[in-house]
Amino acid sequence: MVDVKYEIQNIVLSVTYEDTEFDLEKLAGILEGARYDPEVFPGIAYKSIEPTASFLIFASGKMNCVGAKSMEDAENAIEKLTEKLRESEVEIKSDPEVEVQNMVASFDFEREFDLELIARNFRNTEYEPEVFPGLVFRLEEPKAVILLFVSGKGVCAGAKSEEDIQKAADRITEVIE
């Protein structure tokens, strides 16, 4: 079986600080470049530069972290932000609980696909070229959605780990050979 190359494009994580509430007004003044307009959105939008990640921070002590291209970068960005919060005297009792919600990766299968043929032969697929040029392939195990294109490129969404991304690539390769 051919090893399919993939590249993580985005990781979405939920971050929860147990028993912590954020004073968003105060935080917005502390975090450089933070945007907070409660009339428009009930949270702070904040972007960390090194490593690159964006955060939506809510008063409930919860955050969403998006935009990191590796788990290491995501964890480092969360760690740095947690450190900034602690330095600014936000009372944080314990390290945040971090959960991966979604990983998006791009694939290159290094071959072209006959999407019509794949759509006819497999259930769990959707292909409407008049609406969207890719074939949507829903996998049960791992639970992920793969978009396949005639060019041999693909996108995996919904995975929760790199292991799932690799399994999805292997599963697609297995199924269409």
Short recap of the structure:
With 177 residues, the protein is α+β, with helices and mostly antiparallel strands. It contains four helices and ten strands; from the N terminus they run βαββββαβαββββα.
Question: What is the element layout, followed by pairings?
Answer:
Blueprint: E1 5-16, H1 24-30, E2 35-36, E3 43-48, E4 53-58, E5 62-68, H2 71-87, E6 97-108, H3 115-121, E7 125-126, E8 135-139, E9 144-148, E10 153-159, H4 162-176
Structure explained in plain terms:
The protein is 26% helix and 36% strand. It has 177 residues and is an alpha+beta fold. The protein folds into two domains: 18-95, TATA-Binding Protein (2-Layer Sandwich), CATH 3.30.310.10; 103-176, TATA-Binding Protein (2-Layer Sandwich). A ten-stranded antiparallel β-sheet has the order 2-3-4-5-1-6-10-9-8-7, with helices on one face. A hairpin with a 4-residue loop joins strand 9 (144-148) and strand 10 (153-159). The protein is elongated and about 60 Å long. It comes from candidate division MSBL1 archaeon SCGC-AAA382C18. Pfam families: TBP. Keywords: DNA-binding, Repeat, Transcription, Transcription regulation. Sequence repeats lie at residues 100-176.
Rg of Cα set = 20 Å
Low-confidence stretches: none
| Major sheet description | 10 strands, antiparallel
Tell me the name of the CATH class of the largest domain.
Alpha Beta
Amino- and carboxy-terminal Cα gap: 9 Å
**Shape, per Cα inertia axes:** elongated
Which tags fit this structure?
177 residues, TATA-Binding Protein, 2 domains, 4 helices, 36% strand, transcription regulation, transcription, DNA-binding transcription factor activity
